[in-house]
Design a protein that fits this description.
Largest sheet: 9 strands, mixed
Number of domains: 2
CATH class of the largest domain: Alpha Beta
CATH topology of the largest domain: TIM Barrel
Distance between the termini: 8 Å
CATH architecture of the largest domain: Alpha-Beta Barrel
Radius of gyration: 25 Å
Length: 479
C-alpha cells in the first residue's frame, strides 16, 4: 500500500477539482484495493519474467514492458526523436475511449504549433533534427490528400534518416491508397482494430504493402476473450508489432468509462486500473503460448514522462547556453559557484589554463559568481564556495508571450516559432560534502561516495532534485 504523501495529496486535490461535477459518482481506488491491485500486478509481472527464454524486457527506466523487440517508431518516441503531427481533428469512428471530440477537420498541429503548409513542417523537422514523424488525428484517411502532401514534402526536403508512420482505424483503407503511401515513403502503419470490432480486412490489405504493420489498441479489459485468441492470428497474418496502451480518462470520455464500471486511478492524469492488468495478461498469454509476436505495453507513466522530455530536449539544445546542461528529463540545469572575488578569479584562471573552450563557463562582472558546464566539474575546487543549482523547463510557442525569456527560431522566410524558458527551481544551494553528494548522484557517478556526503542532508532535497534530473522508474504506483 502506498502512503499518502504531500505530493499524492496535491494530485488527489487537483483531480477532485478537475472532476468536481462527477468525482463522487466515479469508482476510485481505495487503499485496500490498491494493495490487492499491486499484488496482482506483481504476480503478473513475475509470471511474465519467470521463464527460461529472454522474451520480455523493460525499457525507458522500467516504464515500458515489451517482448522480443520494439518497433522503430516506439524506439524513436522513447529516445526523443519523434514528432506526432495531428493531421486533422475529425474521425469516422465511435470509440468509447476517445479522449476528445473529433468533429473539426482543423489544421495540422504538433506541440501547440499549427502547420498549414507542409513545407513549414518539413523545415521544422529538419531544423529540430527530428528522426521520426507520425500522422495521427482524428482519422488521417479522412484527409488523405493532406497526408500525402505532407508525406511527399517530408521525403523531398529532409535529407537525414526519417522514419514515418501513421495511425488509422482502417475504415477507409484501400489497397490503392496503401500502395500510394508506400510508394511515397511510408514506413509503418498502425491499426486500432478495437475501433472496428477487431475486423482484420484492412490490416490484411496492408501486410505485404507497407513495410511494417503494427496493431495499436487500448487494452480493453472486457475484450480479453477476443484479444487473447487474436494474438496468434495477428502473428500468423504477418503483423510486425502489437502495442497495448493504457486507457486514460478525460472529462470528455468520463461518462462512457464510468458506465463500464472501471476503477479510476489518481495520478498526473486519471487512468483506468483494469486496463493495465489486461495488458499484462495479454503479454503473459502470448509468452505462455509461445507466440513470437513482439508486444509492447505503452503505460501512461511512460508517455507522460518520456514524450514530454522529448519535446523539451529538442528545445533545450537550441535555447540553453553553452555553460548550461541538459538533464535526462530535458530540463536545463544551470550551475554556478558563489564566493569572494579572490576565489572566483582563481577558479577562472584554472579553467583558462585547462579548458580551451571558454564558452563552457562565464563569470559575473564583479567576479562573485562563476557559471560552469558539468564537463568542467573535475576542474572545480569547491572549497570555500557555495554551489547554486537552478532548473528551467521549455515550451514551444507559435508567438512570443513576453512573459518569459525566449528565443525565436526561424524555420524559413515565412515561418518562425518561439522557444520560451520557464524557471522551475530558482536555486538550490549546497556546500561542502553536499556538493560532493550532488556530483556523485547527478554529474559523475565515479566520484567516490562516502557516508559523510549525506550527513545532515535535508530529507526532501533528493526528491526536489530528482524531479528535474531523472525519470520516475517503473510502472506508476496505485492510489
Amino acid at each position: 500500500m502506498n502512503p499518502i504523501t504531500p505530493d499524492i495529496s496535491e494530485i488527489i486535490c487537483r483531480t477532485k477539482e478537475e472532476y468536481a461535477d462527477s468525482y463522487d459518482t466515479m469508482t476510485w481506488l481505495t487503499p485496500q484495493k490498491a494493495a490487492e491491485a499491486s499484488a496482482l500486478r506483481d504476480s503478473l509481472i513475475k509470471a511474465i519474467f519467470d521463464r527460461p527464454d529472454k522474451g520480455p524486457d523493460w525499457a525507458f527506466a522500467g516504464t515500458k514492458l515489451f517482448t522480443h523487440s520494439l518497433s522503430p517508431g516506439c524506439s524513436l518516441c522513447g529516445s526523443g526523436g519523434w514528432s506526432c503531427l495531428f493531421i486533422n481533428g475529425i474521425c469516422n469512428g465511435k470509440c468509447f475511449y476517445c479522449p476528445s471530440t473529433q468533429t473539426d477537420k482543423a489544421q495540422p498541429v504538433t506541440n501547440t504549433l499549427e502547420f498549414k503548409n507542409p513545407t513549414d513542417y518539413a523545415d521544422y523537422v529538419r531544423l529540430f533534427n527530428i528522426r521520426g514523424v507520425s500522422f495521427s488525428g482524428g482519422e488521417p484517411f479522412m484527409t488523405f490528400d493532406r497526408v500525402l502532401s505532407f508525406l511527399k514534402t517530408l521525403r523531398s526536403r529532409i535529407s537525414h534518416p526519417l522514419y514515418i508512420w501513421m495511425y488509422t482505424n482502417g475504415l477507409l483503407v484501400t489497397e490503392d491508397k496503401l500502395k500510394t503511401l508506400r510508394d511515397n515513403g511510408l514506413d509503418e502503419i498502425r491499426f486500432d482494430l478495437s475501433a472496428n470490432a477487431y475486423h482484420l480486412d484492412a490490416l490484411k490489405k496492408a501486410v505485404g504493402i507497407i513495410p511494417c504493420v503494427t496493431v495499436e489498441i487500448p487494452a480493453i479489459p472486457e475484450d480479453l476473450d477476443k484479444t487473447r485468441p487474436l494474438l496468434k492470428t495477428l502473428n500468423d497474418e504477418g503483423v510486425n508489432h502489437l502495442n497495448l496502451h493504457q486507457l486514460r480518462c478525460t472529462p470528455f470520455n468520463r461518462s462512457r468509462l464510468t458506465q463500464r464500471n472501471y476503477t479510476f486511478l489518481h495520478g498526473p492524469k486519471v487512468t483506468v486500473l483494469e486496463t493495465e492488468s489486461a495488458a499484462l495478461e495479454l503479454i503473459r498469454h502470448a509468452l505462455d503460448e509461445h507466440i513470437p509476436l513482439p508486444i509492447n505495453y505503452c503505460s501512461f507513466t511512460f508517455r507522460s514522462q518520456f514524450q514530454r522530455a522529448a519535446a523539451m530536449k529538442r528545445n533545450c539544445l537550441i535555447i540553453r547556453a553553452a555553460h548550461e546542461d541538459m538533464t535526462s528529463t530535458g530540463h536545463i540545469r544551470t550551475m554556478s559557484v558563489i564566493g569572494d572575488e579572490k576565489k572566483i578569479r582563481s577558479l577562472h584562471e584554472v579553467l583558462i589554463s585547462k579548458e580551451p573552450d571558454t564558452t563552457l563557463w562565464r563569470t559575473t562582472k564583479s567576479f562573485d559568481q562563476l557559471f560552469f558546464n558539468a564537463a568542467l566539474w573535475s576542474h572545480m575546487d569547491f572549497t570555500h564556495v557555495r554551489l547554486k543549482v537552478s532548473y528551467s523547463s521549455t515550451s514551444l510557442e507559435p508567438s512570443v508571450s513576453f512573459r518569459n525569456p525566449f528565443k525565436e527560431v526561424v524555420l524559413n522566410r515565412k515561418k518562425k516559432v518561439v522557444i520560451e524558458r520557464h524557471t522551475k527551481e530558482p536555486g538550490i544551494f549546497l556546500e561542502g560534502r553536499h556538493i560532493d553528494w550532488f556530483g556523485h548522484e547527478y554529474i559523475n557517478p565515479e566520484i567516490a561516495p562516502s557516508d559523510s556526503m549525506t550527513q545532515a542532508l535535508p530529507e526532501e532535497l533528493p526528491d526536489n532534485i530528482d524531479v528535474f534530473e531523472s525519470f520516475k522508474p517503473g510502472l506508476a504506483p496505485y492510489y
